[in-house]
Q: What sequence folds into this?
């Protein structure tokens, strides 16, 4: 029986095969998010932002900036539990929550580290 790819595995593979994973704006490299979802946690809307580790390495990051200039404070990385093997996307990405109230206008799709 063949295991089907999960949604996040599919999104991570699309990210890896994408020709536009980065863009340079004013000499700064921005990295495309692997995935962005909107969640509702305790009556507050939040963004769940999945960023590839190639953007920040193994160091913790405190904030990022999107291509629209929004500077976003990140939660500590989210921890997930998996039955069986831990998927590659989880080992190679960080998943963060951002309060929607911190964003003025639209959230971007590309991000750069502001503060580690």
A:
């Amino acid at each position: 029986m063949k295991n089907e790819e999960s949604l996040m595995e599919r999104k991570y593979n699309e990210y890896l095969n994408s020709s536009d994973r980065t863009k340079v704006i004013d000499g700064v490299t921005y990295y495309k998010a692997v995935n962005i979802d909107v969640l509702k946690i305790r009556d507050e809307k939040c963004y769940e932002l999945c960023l590839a580790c190639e953007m920040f390495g193994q160091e913790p990051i405190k904030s990022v900036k999107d291509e629209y200039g929004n500077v976003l404070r990140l939660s500590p990385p989210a921890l997930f539990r998996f039955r069986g093997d831990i998927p590659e996307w989880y080992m190679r990405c960080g998943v963060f929550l951002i309060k929607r109230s911190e964003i003025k206008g639209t959230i971007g799709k590309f991000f750069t580290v502001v503060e580690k």
Q: What stands out?
A: The first strand starts at residue 22 and ends at 25. The chain has one domain: 7-115. The helical segments are 7-17, 88-91. Strands lie at 22-25, 28-32, 35-41, 44-52, 63-66, 71-73, 93-99, 110-115.
